[in-house]
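Q: Predict the bound structure with uridine-5'-diphosphate-xylopyranose.
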Amino acid sequence: MEMAVIGTGYVGLVSGVCFAEAGNTVVCVDRDETKIALLQRAKSPIFEPGIEAYMARNMEAGRLAFTSDVAAAVRGSDMIVIAVGTPSLSNGEADLRFIREVAEAVGQAMNGRKIVAVKSTVPVGTNETVRRIIAEQTDEPFDVVSIPEFLREGSAIQDTLHPDRIVIGLDNRELEPTLVGLHRAFTDRIYVTDVRSAEMIKYASNAFLATKISFINEISNICEKVGADVTQVAAGMGMDTRIGPSFLNAGIGYGGSCFPKDTKALIQLAGNVDYEFKLLKSVVEVNADQRYKIIAKLEQALGHVQNAVIGIWGLSFKANTDDIRDSPAFDIAQTLLRRGARLKLYDPVAMEKMKEKLDHPFIQWCESAMEAAASADAVCLLTDWQEFKDVDLRLLIYVMNQPIVVDGRNIFAAEQVAMANVRYYAVGRPNLQASDRAEAPAV
Ligand code: UDX
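A: Predicted complex:
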């Protein structure tokens, strides 16, 4: 197909690249000309493993191009994919401003029958709004379909090329063969439904995953009080195929650009039709508290954090991304600074973005995990980067002021910790103190 993908954020750029990879001719559109200039040189404005190689290959093959000219892109395409952002309004509701602007621009440029697919996460009923706005601008025939996106940052290309399922919401059943054919390159697990249900599937899926995370975080809080180990509990629970092992990692709670925004939008959407989504409200509340529990652990380990030197490992909201949107690390760092701690911050890729948001005389930006640990009274791990998993904990006793590790992601095994001679505090697991130490081997 000849396709235009509007919006070059995570969803738009990755979808465009993957549609090109599947053999379609794709032009990705963004009104930000600086971004387009970068993309035209096969440089990605987002950090996503592997994406530039895919971009370069498809650009060379003539299947992928970038432009800031929406009208030209729409005119040259049979299918237009809308993938612009839907940020939160102050009441939690999704802000549809960009969707409306794009719908208007698409309507104005229509020159023949086209399919308009909405990939942005939008409240139920938005596709009908898009249809109305386009119809106000043109007499040309067109269809609006909902094809929500389920990719995760950090594994976005693989998630898109090999998805668990694709959901297609359409009201005109005649489009089914075309759209199923287009997506069969990725998977046979294609679920065709009506537009409103497709819009709801996206919100319900994200809300359910967020619920799993808050559930296991609450279990972890109880585990701490009764002396159980949440990693073992989650492993045992996950063996039940009705539960499944994924999204049962206790930690500092979810962050990022989707779960926080989409859970609040669904609560608001329910409220708009007089339904109080009590369960999801609790999920959000639990998540808001969870990130601060790590501070209590630091205080438990150190007595108080005032004037303590704390090395922070990880700033992005999860591993393999430089995204710091709603990253728990930001709130944790800010709270520690307010309480008088001195922070040594390190992240493999998210440092520049965090420097733009966080500025304080008590912050030292470091070049490596070991530099952040040097002379620190405690190290606090906030992002589960492989680089941190690979750290030889046994070195910490030589560089830290006192070897205390507070692990917000439960990435270290008890044996590893025991060998390293450190005091270890994790989430929902028993603390390991000096008395639990094995004899430290010479390093
Ligand atoms: C999520 C959805 O997974 C994806 O389908 C949707 O399209 C966009 O939102 P993403 O935000 O990229 O993707 O990250 P994800 O890997 O889902 O993690 C979200 C947050 O939950 C992160 O902060 C992560 O650290 C946290 N998380 C995840 C946990 O705390 N525990 C877990 O077991 C899993």
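A: Confidence is low (pLDDT under 50) at residues 437-443.
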